[in-house]
Amino acid sequence: MSKEQTSNRWVVVVIFFFFMLLHQTDKLMIGSLQVQISEDFGISNTQWGLVNSGALIVATILYPIWGYLYDRYARSKLLSLASFIWGATTWLNAIVRSFGGFLVTRASTGIDDSSYPGLYTLIADYFGPTQRGKVFGILQLTQPIGYLLGMILALMVAPNIGGWRSVFYITGSLGLVIALLIFFFVKEMPRGRAEPEFEQIAEMQTFKFSWAEAKEIFKKKTMWFIFLQGFAGVFPWNVITFFFFAYLEKERGYDANSILFTMAPVILILASGYFVGGALGDFAFKRSNKGRIIVSSIGVLMGALFMYLAITTPIEAKNQFFIFMCLTAIFMPLSATNVTATVYDVTVPEVRSTAQATEYFIENAGAAFAPIITGLIADAYSLQTAILLICTVAWGLCFVFYLGAIFTIDHDTQHLRNQMAERAKTM
């Protein structure tokens, strides 16, 4: 890789960081705007549920399509298009004045929600296997930070600038600006450019999408374990996202200030865990192909343990509860970046977007069931029981699936390295 490409890759990381940060802010702040929007349209909780389900369903359906397009065409230009769609649909969502129009335009915002596979695969062609975890960790900081930023915009800024529509105009406009930055400053890289076998090769062969290679994704045993943990692994995240604040208020007796001062530090610690997980994964991967899987398995196991200790802490022991939640936040995100990096450790460059899009498709399928199951258990027993049961069972299953991947990752990783070495000989 030339010096120009090396310096440009950090420009790409910065642009993608702000793309993801602002996109996550736009995507996640709607939860904090529920009261304002519901009062504006006069809608029920069921109708509000339809609003959120619509975008999720659209994103799920489009994951395979985005994955295919990214593997066939220039990812940088498609990402610019995705950012433009984000800005345009958010503007439309702010403009409409009827609930029916709001429901349709909000669902349309799911189009760009499934656009991330191309971003990660392009980054993977700028950074080699032993660096990807850290870079993915930096990029995935954007989700928890975006969530906090969304809360601030929704609860503090929106009431002072004309309401929720004004905030949507702001985030939508930023989406259009980011689209221009990506279009002009993010350069496409040859697929596989950062693989170690091609370091000394000046002119890269163009690897093109093929259905034969796409089918090979499903022949790799490691990918099946990745798919299984993806389905189970989203359950705890959705339980915490949709029900944890209600649990703190209704069953632990926290007021608004107590919730803020408890959860804000926890979310910030959670954010740091993405980078820590990626760095630990890279460090371990340099020593063993099993490294990322080991880090991931420790993350889900310890996350389950500390979540159990937090939820079973007596209500009056608030400091103890806070400490255990902070420890949970350290371990929860350790596997996130390593799962993405592992997908690229076992799949060929020209179908990586398809592989990751498939993994996200399966994750979203799990995400669709999580709130329903949680609600049923909470109504039958309590929120405490629902959170405790789903988090511990789901993370326990993830640990078992990671144990399975430990026995397959060496073969699948070495098979990819052999493929890359064979290709390098023909260049």
Q: What's the quaternary structure here?
A: single chain
The helix/strand class is mainly alpha
Approximate helicity band: over 70%
Order of H and E elements: HHHHHHHHHHHHHHHHHHH
Radius of gyration: 21 Å
Total discrete domains: 2
The CATH architecture of the largest domain is: Up-down Bundle
Low-confidence stretches: none
CATH topology of the largest domain: Growth Hormone, Chain: A
Question: How would you sum up the major sheet?
Answer: none
Could you report the average pLDDT, rounded to the nearest whole number?
Answer: 91
Structure description:
With 427 residues, this protein is mainly α. It folds into two domains: 192 residues, MFS general substrate transporter like domains (Growth Hormone, Chain: A), CATH 1.20.1250; 215 residues, MFS general substrate transporter like domains (Growth Hormone, Chain: A), CATH 1.20.1250.20. The chain is globular. The model has no long low-confidence stretch (mean pLDDT 91).
Provide key terms for this protein.
single chain, 427 residues, 2 domains, 80% helix, mainly alpha, Growth Hormone, Chain: A
